[in-house]
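>> received
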Amino acid sequence: MTSEIKLGMQFGYWQAAPPPNFVELAQEGERLGYDIAFTAEAWGSDVFTPLTWIAAHTKRIRLGTAVAQLSARTPAATAMHTLTLDHLSKGRVTLGLGVSGPQVVEGWYGQPFAKPLARTREYISIIRQVLARGAPVTNPGPHYPLPYPADAPGSWGMGKPLRPITHPLRADVKLLLGAEGPKNVALAAELCDGWLPLYYSPYRPEVYMDSLARAKPGFETMATCSIEVTDDLQQGFQPLKTMLAFYIGGMGSRKRNFHKELMARMGFEAEADKIQQLFFEGKRAEAIAVVPDQFCDEISLVGPPARIRERLEAWRDTPVTHLLCSARDKAQLQQIAELVLGA
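>> returned
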């Protein structure tokens, strides 16, 4: 449990065009005492380039990927990105990884989604080996074999284990895992330095308690949390409802949607089913309306300042170490810092 909660900035992935003020917001967040700035990727902008741009215009704030998709790069390539940016930023990188989902992996990257847990284990092992630079990197597993087997299709039989030419600045770059399912969260606790939950309710600790049992001392839980100061709760919930309806209704297939499954495990199964049904029927406005106020309220901090401070106390009695928030402008960043950090 933690009493001190830090703040992080989540810039996400770009929409139709780059956001015009993300560098200025990162600089202001650094000034206000935000601990880390994250970027993301889906099937448009990549996760490392905007983070590098932020690194070039800041000095102290940590730099995180939330998340770098496994299927976007081989593990060796991700390790190369990480060690390069860690040098350029003088040791500020935190690497957040995630498997994404079958729609993106198979539809965008053209790779199979099978065995996500086994793939993640191999991926992490290779990255750790590259950053340690203790020996040439090898991996006997079936998903990312290194070197490529001589008897595999297309092989020239000339591969040999290598170690990175560039000496990594740090062998102990913190590695986080974006995870929703119980087994994947347990994998984060077992192998990683932290966890990136998309939805976290401080009022339902039982949802993740067993999965986090193996978390080591210093384990960082960085939870996405919308923080909105307003006297109108319904207006404050609306952007969150729009996002939730899209993720629960459309970010997955009818057969498998990890966001929908998580909402069900958190006690809102009927509502999750209804959101998906309406979304696939093309009734997006109705799907948004079905998102429960209670669910929005539990995973966010919305309302007047006094209400936010009161509800923030519930978060302090959880494993959450960081609240990751998005802000429209510098004034909102300042407002959030005052509420959470007393800045």
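>> Residues 191 and 328 are 35 Å apart (CA to CA).
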